[in-house]
Amino acid sequence: MTPNNKQPSENGKQQDLTYIQKVWNTVAIVALLVVVILIARVAFNVLLMVLAGVLISVYFHGFGDMIQRRTKWSRRICMLISVGGSFIILAVLFWFMGTKISNQIAVLSDSLPNTVRTAKLKMAETPLGNKVLGYLSDDNSDQLFATAKQFFNTSFGVLGDLYIILFLAIFFTTSPNLYKDGIIKLMPASKKELGKCVIDRISLALKGWLKGMMLSMVLVFILLTIGLSIMNIPVALVLALFTGLLKLIPNFGSLAAMIPGVLLALTISTNTAIIVALIYMVTQTIVSYIVTPLIQKRMIDLPPALTILAQVLMGTLSGVLGVVLAVPLLAIVMILVDELYVKKIDQGLSE
């Protein structure tokens, strides 16, 4: 009887130990998954910074190509002029426009409380405005600011990210073949030609996107500066510059940039606000639907709904940097899918 009693108790202890071991294994697996997800998120932000550095490098090389075509100088001299000239142009622009822009920013910051107060009084006169004001109550506004703060958070802070992106761009600019050849060497011998084709196609698409985006930003800045100055809107230069920079964010950037301009115009009169809103919409329409498509012919055609979904997804994952780089990243994904999947299916059907 005694041995029989000991055997069930030993089996029970073994079952308890097995159960505890399973629990700890489960906890270890969950912890490992959490760590992997956190690392993947940080790694994804780093990849976005690499993409931003690549885009700046593409700009430098595109500018250098243009100089070389017109002058027939050596590649090294053209690239030095491209990089150095770009920084000199930025410095000159900030030198000539910096004082005026800083003065207008000071005026805007001083007049902003009165502008918001006047806009609230105007909005309170309509039922729809009352609903909007109710949504922008203290609790909702605090939640909105918290969301915006989280949206603008980055991996290393804004200045840290800019520092890393700038140095990556310089490294990619000085020796692009080193990184291109390194990627191709990682591929099997049978896929090296396909890898070169994909990289060249991605480079062409990014150049098209960059050309269209830069021209769009400059045109939006010029057109809005003229239109807002004609309407005697205060701080027209700052508003136009703000709108040009937000052109980096398709769809949502244009809407966000229009809000401060319309609010300032609303302090003058309702009719002025309507006219200013029309100036914003006409400018954005001309640039987005006429000028930009002519420049971005070489870029892959992206469905608008897919672009918006990519922006929302990237904004959720990586904040403002993800939204800015959503379109070029989507273009890269579309090219990879087309080259690695769609064309193989079409070849198989043709055979």
Automatic annotation (TrEMBL):
Keywords: Membrane, Transmembrane, Transmembrane helix. Pfam families: AI-2E_transport (PF01594). It comes from the Bacteria. The chain crosses the membrane at residues 23-40, 46-64, 76-97, 162-179, 217-242, 248-266, 273-292, 312-337. It is a multi-pass membrane protein. InterPro entries: AI-2E-like. It is found in: Membrane. PANTHER family: TRANSMEMBRANE PROTEIN, TRANSPORT PROTEIN YDBI-RELATED. Belongs to the autoinducer-2 exporter (AI-2E) (TC 2.A.86) family. This is PurR-regulated permease PerM. It comes from Mucilaginibacter pocheonensis. The lineage of its organism: Bacteria, Pseudomonadati, Bacteroidota, Sphingobacteriia, Sphingobacteriales.
